[in-house]
């Protein structure tokens, strides 16, 4: 990419980082180093990504866990591969089953919203297809951190404490007791600089590694998971776990001003980012941080989300084609709806047809964009005793409307928030990027892509740039340091601007770009958290 490596339009703690032999960027320094250790031990970028992802279940448990889902985009030998490791609803979980229990909505916490976790299967599948080292070796750095403990970094301590306060006020009963024993062993969240360890977590990771994740789905870990959830009247069974396999998928893309922007297809929400970029490409690039540019970005995101919320679901249940949603003709019709005032768009009629992110690259040209999550931080609040396995709550994202594409149904995957991104140009890899954070993610992708392609910012500056987040209606949150004159200008356009008290809701991202001529890697990491880049 063409950018000035020293150009930083906003204050930053960092400049971009360069390396040639390898790079791992993620939100926790020890996790980035775990990936780099595996790379130096003879692994490739895929092994490094797996090691980093497993380490993050230990080193950033407030955002992900072994019992979560994952998605990956893998560039190797000149080709981009997609892996969807999101799990389906249990075979016994349905709208009727919940209504029989008197439920009219799917709860956030507890055993009910737990779907089949896909993350361990993602590690095993990536290792088997593209890795160079045994999975057991790749997971060992994570197991050691769980066994020996580590001191909490500042951002993690903040989010951990916040979740502990929420759980203490909202969750009670035997089903949640193991979460408090594991993650609040002294009756509170561990503080910054304090040591925390989880020996059960270490044992589970080693068992997953030794069995290539078979134990998690068809062995002793599966039995412990199913038994505990069944004990507390949940739906996930051993049969649900045994039936699961992740799916290799063809990534979807759009061409944005000469670059191909790649995402995982539905049930992920990467489609929202691509639809928004299709709308925005019809406008001249404009100036960065101008009122007109920001207004168009916000209106495009609202239009794309209206379609995403209406149509994104498990692809087997989508009644609208991807080709139609991504067509230039459809983008033209949606763009025509953007006026000089903030609007409240609904879905169009297209033609027929809580998370961690990491990026890894090696000196051979392999690159990985990987994202993993339990959802809503720690997830369901359910931890399997003696294992450190914190279970996700992805079932909460289903609709209880039987007519909706994303309606809850047995064996169906829900609308999924986590999305890895990747850029190419002319068949050459530029590299992986991602911004975590629930429904902020496609919004973060759009902002990072435009910062890179339209405004020529280097990876660090592209991440540091103040962010906005559309919430619903005309409500838009902006960061505390968002320029006041721009916020006021957007208010005059009809946007309802809210200033966030901190930067926690605006996602945390990583970027690695590769120069195709020299092979030199350039990385940026998130200043909104404990982000770090390990290089070789």
Automatic annotation (TrEMBL):
UniProt xrefs under Pfam families: G_glu_transpept
InterPro entries to which the protein is assigned, alphabetical: GGT-like_enzyme (IPR052896), GGT_lsub (IPR043138), GGT_ssub_C (IPR043137), Ntn_hydrolases_N (IPR029055)
Entry-linked SUPFAM superfamilies: N-terminal nucleophile aminohydrolases (Ntn hydrolases)
Protein name: Gamma-glutamyltransferase
Organism: Saccharibacillus kuerlensis
Lineage: Bacteria, Bacillati, Bacillota, Bacilli, Bacillales
């Amino acid at each position: 990419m063409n950018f000035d490596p020293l150009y930083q339009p906003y204050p930053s703690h960092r400049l971009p980082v360069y390396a040639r032999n390898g790079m791992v960027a993620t939100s926790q320094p020890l996790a980035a180093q775990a990936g780099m250790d595996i790379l130096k031990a003879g692994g490739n970028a895929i092994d490094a990504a797996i090691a980093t992802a497993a380490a993050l279940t230990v080193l950033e448990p407030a955002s992900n866990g072994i019992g979560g889902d994952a998605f990956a985009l893998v560039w190797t030998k000149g080709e981009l591969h997609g892996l969807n490791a999101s799990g389906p609803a249990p075979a016994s979980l349905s709208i009727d089953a919940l209504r029989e229990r008197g439920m009219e909505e799917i709860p956030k916490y507890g055993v009910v919203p737990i779907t089949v976790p896909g993350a361990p299967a993602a590690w095993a599948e990536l290792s088997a297809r593209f890795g160079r080292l045994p999975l057991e070796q790749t997971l060992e750095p994570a197991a050691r951190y769980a066994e020996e403990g580590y001191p909490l970094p500042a951002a993690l301590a903040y989010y951990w404490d916040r979740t502990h306060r929420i759980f203490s006020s909202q969750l009670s009963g035997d089903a949640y007791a193991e979460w408090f024993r594991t993650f609040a062993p002294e009756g509170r969240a561990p503080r910054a600089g304090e040591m925390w360890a989880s020996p059960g977590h270490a044992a589970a990771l080693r068992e997953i590694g030794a069995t290539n994740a078979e134990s998690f789905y068809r062995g002793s870990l599966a039995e412990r998971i199913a038994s505990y959830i069944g004990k507390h009247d949940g739906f996930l069974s051993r049969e649900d776990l045994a039936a699961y396999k992740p799916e290799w998928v063809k990534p979807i893309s759009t061409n944005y001003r000469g670059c191909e922007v790649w995402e995982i297809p539905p049930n992920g929400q990467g489609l929202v980012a691509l639809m928004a970029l299709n709308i925005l490409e019809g406008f001249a690039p404009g100036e960065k941080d101008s009122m007109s540019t920001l207004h168009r970005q916000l209106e495009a995101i609202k239009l794309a989300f209206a379609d995403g919320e209406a149509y994104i679901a498990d692809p087997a249940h989508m009644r609208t084609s991807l080709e139609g949603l991504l067509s230039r003709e459809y983008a033209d019709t949606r763009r025509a709806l953007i006026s000089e005032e903030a609007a409240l768009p609904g879905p169009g009629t297209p033609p027929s047809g809580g998370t961690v992110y990491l990026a890894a690259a090696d000196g051979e040209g392999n690159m990985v964009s990987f994202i993993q999550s339990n959802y809503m931080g720690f997830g369901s609040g359910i931890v399997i005793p003696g294992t450190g396995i914190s279970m996700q709550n992805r079932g909460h994202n289903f609709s209880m409307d039987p007519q909706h594409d994303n309606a809850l149904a047995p064996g169906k995957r829900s609308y999924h928030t986590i999305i890895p991104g990747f850029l190419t140009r002319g068949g050459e890899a530029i590299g992986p990027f991602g911004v975590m954070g629930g429904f902020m993610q496609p919004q973060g992708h759009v902002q990072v892509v435009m910062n890179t392609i339209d405004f020529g910012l280097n990876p660090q500056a592209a991440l540091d740039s103040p962010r906005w987040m559309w919430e619903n209606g005309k409500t838009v949150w902006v960061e505390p340091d968002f320029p006041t004159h721009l916020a006021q200008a957007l208010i005059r356009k009809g946007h309802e601007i809210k200033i966030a008290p901190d930067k926690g809701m605006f996602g945390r991202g990583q970027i690695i770009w590769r120069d195709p001529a020299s092979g030199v890697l350039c990385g940026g990491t998130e200043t909104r958290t404990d982000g770090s880049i390990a290089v070789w």
